[in-house]
Specification:
- The structure is a homodimer of 281-residue chains.
- With 281 residues, chain A is α/β, with parallel strands linked by helices.
- Helix content of chain A is 42%, strand content 14%.
- In chain A, the strands form three sheets. Chain A has a seven-stranded mixed sheet, sandwiched between helices. A two-stranded antiparallel ribbon of chain A has the order 3-4.
- In chain A, a hairpin with a 5-residue loop joins strand 3 and strand 4.
- In chain A, helix 1 crosses helix 8.
- The first copy, chain A, is globular and about 45 Å long.
- The interface between A and B is large, with 102 and 102 residues.
Amino acid sequence: MQNMDTHTRRQFIQAIMAAGAAAAVASTGASAWAQEKSTKPAPSHEELAAGLKHGSETILILIYPGFTELDAIAPRYALGGMMGAKVRLIAKTNKPLACESGFEITPQLGFDQCPENVDLLVVPGGMTGTLAAIEDAQTMDFVRQVGKRAKMVGSVCTGSLIIGAAGLLKGYEATCHWQALELLPLFGAKANKGRVVFDRDRVTGAGVTAGLDFGLELVRKYRGDFYAKGMQLLAQYDPQPPFAGGGNPATADPAVVALLEQMHKPFTDKAAGVIKKAVTI
Amino acid sequence: MQNMDTHTRRQFIQAIMAAGAAAAVASTGASAWAQEKSTKPAPSHEELAAGLKHGSETILILIYPGFTELDAIAPRYALGGMMGAKVRLIAKTNKPLACESGFEITPQLGFDQCPENVDLLVVPGGMTGTLAAIEDAQTMDFVRQVGKRAKMVGSVCTGSLIIGAAGLLKGYEATCHWQALELLPLFGAKANKGRVVFDRDRVTGAGVTAGLDFGLELVRKYRGDFYAKGMQLLAQYDPQPPFAGGGNPATADPAVVALLEQMHKPFTDKAAGVIKKAVTI
């Protein structure tokens, strides 16, 4: 069904991998652009391939009813560009489920199809859907079990509330959507205002759009700078937000900050109760 | 199915709308934060509501097999935050279809359920899936017909190849993924390297991640600065790409640029043929 797309996408990805090799030969003037100005011969396919950073990571992205789709789709784009990696959406069952915006996404795996060896488990956030996930024993058992055996566990936005409530952030520095950072100590995490926070075998991203930075930083971790540069350029990630500083509560318009905080309070209060209950289990 | 999520999301959105009103009262010291330092009373609900920018836009996002999901999901997030707007994913049928990464999304509407009055039609990009869409008569008829009656037509990434091949960019300035900009003159558009390009009743975004800037600029257009500031802060859009300048071919590592261009050439060549054939119809 997606053979052609996958095929052409691979050509792109191969370009990125080849770019990694090009870094090694750039100083010889043998990269594609440098060729025109150099008398040295272009590198052979074998020479390019020798510089490639290969991989075969197994990456699972948990989805659940009401998850914020951008939290999952942004890192999925970056991570999915890693040739050889298997990136799959996993949920309680492999039946379609409604995301926060109301449309349905079909997970590629149900919990009962979860691979044994997992390199990275990523958990996206949301609002009441996220709290419902924390209150769902089957979902939390999955996060706890797979989180323990995964080499790394990550989250975007309020996804850190899920992995935290599952006991996976105790003693770790972590981030979250700015409006929920205050909840992190409830499960023993130390709140960090960073956009992407790595602490040993945990990596957490801030609110929603931080999922893109999170994904690219993970590409860099798994495949190195050159591969990540390729993904950033392929994604044309040259952000131009409409309001300078408007995405950070420390620099945004104070009236906007105040009112988002004011209106968010019922969610934060409810979340605190849900988390307190979850951590006693 | 999504009642609770929608409910809590609304609280967020109401906060943003209230923030719009707060801007009007900020100078009186009556916003939530300013209250502490002011002797003036907090504004009543009625006073806040008076400053809100309401709307009821009908926004359709076309999806098709092989579309790049981030191209659609990023603007969907921003546009979906406009309270009162109806934002729907539409496709040939309302059956699940596979996006570029292989997982399935279920469109909310089929072509036969398309509303008569459309404020904005947004078309995401992709690679061979996008070319297949251009070769599909039914899809192109839909884009042509709805594009003609929509108040505005937009695209993200190579989505501009679809709306251009449908004749909707003739005489317009437009942008596209940087690797496909050279194709725009094939259907009479003038290539513009901007990240989000508005030209009369057309708005086009550059590659993939530009969809976020595109979405927020449209929120600003429909609902004004204050609402858009609220959405930017809710999205915590404070981007920190791993490589400064790495998302723009003019400033990225030349070896990465060269190799992406080299490897992308087969797609560009194929696309040129598909577009040339489409514009003669």
